[in-house]
Amino acid sequence: MRALAQRVSSARIRVADETVAEMGAGLLALVGVGRDDAERDAETLARRLVQLRVFEDAEGRMNRSLLDTGGTLGVVSQFTLFGDVRRGNRPSYGEAAPPERAEPLVEAVAAAARAAGVPVVTGRFRSRMQVALVNEGPVSLWIDTALSRRGRPRPPAVVEPGEA
């Protein structure tokens, strides 16, 4: 899974003429699901988001997380994070998970963050959304669960029968 996490002072998510979510200070995460992603990726991503130390402490250093500040996590599905623009002018989305596979994993990110004690707001899956935010800092970070601690690709998430 991939996320573009942005530290925000506020954000609002609208679908058509309806505001579906609003938040104050926290992180807004645009979340993409890859075709090989699994539940463990959702749990890893949620843990990284709630523990990400990008909020200032008393000395002005980015040393506090959502868990420390009581900030909100906004989760917005965005399959275009898996857009491949290496060839041509039209992005290819072949690495993105199909919607029926992606939706439960995006929901799992939100559920895991809630279980950790963080308030969560979400967009509406498979909807054309308007996301307005005030990026504080600005601070924007890229998180990709497919990379290990040393930047190597992780093993495939799917194990074929008889290979375990």
How can the largest sheet be summarized?
Answer: 6 strands, mixed
List segments where confidence is low: pLDDT < 50 over at least 5 consecutive residues: none
Apparent shape: globular
Please tell me the overall pLDDT: 92
| Total helical segments | 3
Overall radius of gyration: 16 Å
- The assigned CATH architecture is 3-Layer(bba) Sandwich
Straight-line distance between termini:
23 Å
Annotation, overall tally of beta strands = 8
Instruction: Using the coordinates above, name the CATH class.
Output: Alpha Beta
Query: Would you list the SSEs in sequence order as H and E?
Result: EEEHEEHEHEE
- The CATH superfamily turns out to be D-tyrosyl-tRNA(Tyr) deacylase
Please identify the structural class as seen in this structure.
alpha/beta
Q: How many domain units?
A: 1
Q: How much helical structure, as a percent, in the residues?
A: 10-25%
